[in-house]
Amino acid sequence: MGQAIRLFNAVEEGWAGAALRTELRQLMDNAGISPKGRQDRRWQPPKADAESASKPQATSRYAGLRVVAQ
Length: 70
Description:
Layout: H1 2-13, H2 18-31, H3 35-40, H4 50-54
């Protein structure tokens, strides 16, 4: 995965040629990072849990805290 990151950096900085861009695309497809890679692997984004979708959003900044017995 480190190679994909280095190639992505080279492409973003603008000094990568066509061959490196092609290599980056292939690495991203193989890793499932690109939309084509996700489609090839039939990956779907995670769906919201049924109970978290039905809960109303809390307005207090402390609403996520819970009491712990000592």
